[in-house]
Amino acid sequence: MGTETFSFIVDGVEVAASSGQTLLEACDAAGVYIPRLCHHPDLPPSGTCRVCTCKVNGRNVAACVTPAAARMVVENETPALTADRRALIEMLFVEGNHPCPYCVASGDCELQALGYRLGMTAPTQPYQWPGLKIDATHPDIYLDRDRCILCARCIEASRMQDGKTVFGFEGRGIAMRLSLDGDGKLGDSQMAAVDKAAHVCPVACIVIKRDSYRVPNGERRFDKTPIGSEIEARRGHPRR
Amino acid sequence: MFAIQTHDPAATGPSVHDVVVRFGADRDRLMDIVIEVQHRFGYVSDDAVREIADTLGIHAVEVNETVTFYAFLDRKPQGRNRIRLSKTPVAFTKGATAVAEAFERALGVAMGETTADGAFTLEWTSDIGWADQEPAALVNGSVVTELTPADVAPMIAGLRRAPAERGPPNSRARSSLVQAGPLLLGLHAPAAGLRAALALTPEAVIEAITASKLRGRGGAGFPTGMKWRLTRKALGKDHYIACNADEGEPGTFKDRVLLAEFPDLVFDGITIAGYALGARLGLLYLRGEYAYLWDHLQRGLAARRAEGLLGVGVCGKTGFDFDIRIQLGAGAYICGEESSLLESLEGKRGSPRDRPPFPTERGYLGQPTAIDNVETLVCAARIMEEGTAWFAGFGTKESTGTKLVCVSGDCERPGVYEIPFGITINELLDLVGAPDAQYVQFSGPSGQAVAPKDFGRRIAYEDLSTGGSTMIFGPHRDVLETALQFTDFFVDESCGWCAPCRVGTTLLKQGMEKIVAGRATLADVNATEALASTVARMSRCGLGQTAPNPILTTMRSFPELYEARLSSAAFEPLVTLDEALREAVEIRGDAPAKADA
């Protein structure tokens, strides 16, 4: 099967792409950063967070699940989209408990990093205080569901890459939760600290024990450069 | 399938296994499996989840995902009798609150609770499809309508003697069909449309449907002929026609009328579509609220098989083998969204799929699938029977034919009306006897609040498009309170998959509560409007995209009502002091002294 190459326009800039790429993948390769949260490059996109929503030919679509197509006209970093994306980040902040100043993930947290990048100061919406229990039954991993943003990364990773299906969703709507296979305790599951599922959480819901402050605050991924910088650094360089 | 509910958890082991085996130990039939287990044991226990998972060769967490998604499936034991009251604004205007209170008093439990003896679970449920005869309820799956507080004691006494089987609606329920038109009158020989279609080539059937300009009756209005053509030409091992009988939009009940009173027209339509698409199987997705139609529909299918209208060589047409399977749902509005419906058909949570690919290319089991509304398929059957010109002779240029509208609320003659496209809201209000409507919630909560200044607008795809729900609210109704109730509906029915809808609907409800309570400042109202717009723009599927409509369209139609509720304060906290202190007061056992006391 031959790969077709073509181009499209994002915020006035021409982006080269090849067939089979999603809008997000094509932009990543071209060094154009589209803010995203649930997407993980090693996992199939699930489209749960909608942060990567762009306006394509006048219609809002999630870039992670939209195939790149020739001649499409894409709006990405417009004030309107940035405001909507910021509102989504706020929603996730108030849905759970995210006390950045004392959270183990601070500086490594993609939710926090997007809050900074998109210009959120403090959430304007009311906190929902989920009050869920921490699961510390596993010797090497703990689960803090109050931090969970239901991105589905761990579900996909456990199912597709670890071949274990430790995680799933439970309930629906605002009562939807991350649930566990078997008796519902992480310690009773097949989960291991080396699993892919233990290393894809964008926040501090799935945390490896005794490992949290190996890299001190101030020296973490997003402490020095904003989220997306590594993608934007590709801009101007030849692809691959 | 539906015997009296029994509770015998001891029998769980082998019986659950048998249920799974009866459905071919097929993971795609998980909905049937868990519905049957729920029905026989009253809930899906941990043991049952494990047993189902083991027999299917999947993980327990996957079974749990499906079971916990649906409102009519339980993971914990519930009362032997289930009383589910329809929670809709129309029901409230007809006295549902007093009925609920009568149940609470009679049973000694609050809504959502189970009696200590395990005899009754009392709860609210989303609209059950009887908006013309509210307050209505599902009692062990059977429908009771036009309830009053006086009905409660005798009903409970009767249920204590013998739990009602799931059966036809109670004697008080009357046909909802008030005015039939050309679509439903003058029917000739049985299966006349089907026979006419089979005399043509499949391509010619699609051409006829295209020429009739038939558009989807669910409200979106996609051209049916084009959908069938796309599905037919898409490559796949199999092709499917799915009939969407999951009419969950509050205020809609036309498909129930069609299924109850014109099932053969529905089956004709499905079979015609099957022939046109090159399908061998049609699927009818029946909402769980209509489970009492199960036996009636199965009898209809059995009769058709006996008459050669289904099976090998339908109507003697060599090479056209076709049958219809009914898939029962289990209480989830979202499954009316076509990609969620497909997920549910495959035994999964009813969360929508991202498109592309569209169902016409990759639908049920990844194969090309056309999903059509019940009414659309009835139209197709009648078009094949009476001809394209006959159909296009009704309605307007872009909206051919007639439309079934479901009228409820403050009017003299609620029910289903078959109207030609193109009539105005005013004409409809005259027809149903609603001279003093304050507004019409048009096409359900996902549609729009239409104010009197727009009553001259036409019901047609060119102007006001509708799935049929038409809820009328009289001059004494509280528009904002109603908008809040509709917003609450979307909180209950959001699937939870995408953040804007999952979190946004709850935040919108909280914002609207503050507005209705008269505690919102202008800044609060503006913030709620902005949030509503974000939810509409960023949500993944039609549910989230339209969930803010009750708020946004009442803001547009009735800005003065919002203005009248504004707080004059510069700032009103979302949480009142009393609310903030509630937990502390409970712990301490006394409230702090008030400064002004």
Fold and architecture overview:
The complex is a heterodimer of chains A (240) and B (597). Chain A is of the alpha+beta class and 240 residues long. Chain A is 21% helix and 17% strand. Chain A has two domains: 7-77, Ubiquitin-like (UB roll) (Roll), CATH 3.10.20.740; 97-224, Alpha-Beta Plaits, CATH 3.30.70. In chain A, the strands form three sheets. Chain A has a five-stranded mixed beta sheet with strand order 2-1-5-3-4. A three-stranded antiparallel beta sheet of chain A has the order 6-7-10, with no helix packed on it. In chain A, strands 8-9 form a two-stranded antiparallel sheet. The model of chain A has no long low-confidence stretch (mean pLDDT 95). Chain B has 597 residues and is α/β, with parallel strands linked by helices. Chain B folds into five domains: 9-67, no CATH class; 81-161, Glutaredoxin; 177-245 and 255-282 and 295-386, Rossmann fold; 402-473, Ubiquitin-like (UB roll) (Roll); 479-565, de novo design (two linked rop proteins). Chain B is built from 24 helices and 15 strands. In chain B, strand 4 (137-139) and strand 5 form a beta hairpin. In chain B, helix 11 (254-261) crosses helix 12 and helix 18 (479-493) runs antiparallel to helix 19. Chain B starts with 11 loop residues before the first helix and ends in a 9-residue tail after the last helix. The interface between A and B is large, with 39 and 39 residues.
Give a nutshell description of this structure.
The complex is a heterodimer of chains A (240) and B (597). By secondary structure, chain A is an alpha+beta fold. Chain A has helices at 23-30, 79-95, 110-117, 153-161, 221-224, 229-232, and strands spanning 5-10, 13-18, 53-56, 59-62, 73-75, 134-135, 141-144, 167-170, 177-180, 206-208.
Number of contiguous helices of chain A = 6
Q: In what order do the strands lie side by side in the largest sheet of chain B? A: 6-12-11-15-13-14
Uncertain segments of chain B of ≥5 residues (pLDDT<50)?
1-13
- Beta-sheet strand percentage of chain B? 5-15%
| Number of discrete helical segments of chain B | 24
**Biggest protein-protein contact in the assembly:** A-B, 39 and 39 residues
CATH superfamily of the largest domain in chain B: NADH-ubiquinone oxidoreductase 51kDa subunit
Taking the alpha carbons of the first and last residues of chain A, their distance comes to 21 Å
- Helix percentage of chain A: 10-25%
